[in-house]
Amino acid sequence: DLQVGVDLSFKEAVFGVEKKIRLDLQDVCKTCDGDGAAKGSKLIDCKTCDGKGQVVRTQNTFLGSFQQATICPTCHGRGQMPEERCITCHGEGVTNQSKEITVKIPAGIDNGATIRLPGRGEAAIGGAKGDLYVHVRVKHDRQFNRQGYDILSQVTIPMTQAALGTETEVKTVDGDVTIKIPAGTQSGKVIRLSDRGVPHVNGRGRGSHLVEVTVEIPHK
What we know:
By secondary structure, this protein is mainly beta. The chain has helices at 10-15, 159-164, and strands at residues 2-8, 17-28, 43-45, 54-61, 64-71, 80-82, 94-105, 114-117, 132-138, 145-147, 150-158, 166-172, 175-181, 190-193, 209-216.
């Protein structure tokens, strides 16, 4: 298994994005397709384990003799060896490779979440490929904060507008939205904008955008 990290902006985490990631890993040899045999060569039973993939070792102790079966060190448990080894991977079936993959980040993912991609990890000698785990890091945003599936922001208005009521524009992840400030609004009042928050991961609907009003008090 492999683990890599990916950095997202606040909006990329909200709406989802496709990210290209470069990996340096052991993958199936492209010359022999992973069987370790040179072109035109065939596979034969391993002479160390007689094609069983395991070797049995006997150990004598003061309690008696014990037998232990372990993976064959010659064929790595495959039971077969190439008659003539591949010149690219030297019969191992895997080589060090650099590759670029595209990872689809779902909308609504949160900071610290991990995405598991089965079979996208390293290729093991004589075994199946491991998994790739993508660890998500969401960058801090100066305008927005996240609380669950809700987005929090602030707007500051003069005392006169708070007393008489007004309309003002606030920034959301969808763009600028005009909100109505009722007369007599006190500092700390929260105005809710429904369906302007974070989409539910693997679900329907969105959270809300909560705008906290700060009333600016004059110094004189």
